[in-house]
Design goal:
Pathway: Carbohydrate degradation; glycolysis; D-glyceraldehyde 3-phosphate and glycerone phosphate from D-glucose: step 2/4. The protein has 192 residues and is mainly β. The protein contains 2 helices and 15 strands. The protein has a single domain, classed as Jelly Rolls. The strands form 5 sheets. A 6-stranded antiparallel sheet has the order 3-4-5-13-8-11, with no helix packed on it. A 3-stranded antiparallel sheet has the order 10-9-12, with no helix packed on it. It binds 6-O-phosphono-beta-D-fructofuranose (F6P).
């Protein structure tokens, strides 16, 4: 037995129900409403109006019981609802891993995109069912629903990576993604 054998969760199988978007056994669930995305949309007045007008759910995250601690490998299913706020497609808050480590997402359903920013360069990965998006260490990441139906993906990440949301508020994400007349419009994060 290794020194790591005192495990917080035993070896197990985790059942994913694609129709219901649930994990079983299930760990913590997170619901992010529009009010949780303060300071992230370029049009703050449109954001405030959406908060006042029912504060809709933008996305939810269901996790397995694997904890976010060093050496563990947690998983979660994120579902982003379709929608725009003043043309900006609905998205996750986005974060940097303070303890720089990589992460993968697997698109399960819908159509999304993975926006990554290392402080200088921006990268975009189109996400359709079956696509694995890889985020290397040091790249902040945000997911965006670019379709007309809910966009769901599986995330698998090192439990000690952490979530730094202040990094995105301070540095932005390089670009923003808007719904254009003929597809996606990528605009400069600051000037867009
Ligand atoms: O943490 P954010 O930026 O709100 O985005 C949620 C997504 O990111 C994760 O925290 C994983 O990076 C997942 O739990 C979820 O997929």
């Amino acid at each position: 037995m290794s020194e790591y054998s005192a495990l917080p969760v035993p070896p197990m199988s985790i059942r994913f129900d694609q129709g219901a978007g649930t994990l079983s056994p299930e760990g913590p669930t997170l619901t992010r409403r529009m009010s949780d995305l303060e300071g992230l949309f370029r049009d703050s007045e449109a954001w405030a109006a959406a908060v006042a007008d029912g504060d809709p759910i933008v996305y939810s995250v269901v996790s397995s019981p694997v904890p976010e601690i060093d050496r563990e490998l947690p998983q979660s299913i994120t579902t982003i609802q379709p929608g725009t706020t003043a043309g900006e497609l609905w998205m996750t808050k986005g974060h940097q891993h303070p303890n720089h480590q990589g992460e993968i997402y697997l698109c399960i359903s819908g159509h999304g995109g993975l926006l990554m920013f290392d402080g200088t360069e921006t990268r975009w990965v189109d996400m359709t069912p079956g696509t694995i998006g890889y985020m290397p260490p040091g790249w902040a990441h945000r997911s965006i629903n670019v379709g007309d139906e809910p966009y769901s993906f599986l995330a698998v990440y090192p439990g000690g990576a952490g979530h730094d949301y202040g990094w995105v508020l301070e540095h932005g994400m390089g670009q923003r993604v808007l719904a254009g007349a003929d597809g996606l419009d990528f605009v400069n994060y600051v000037e867009g």
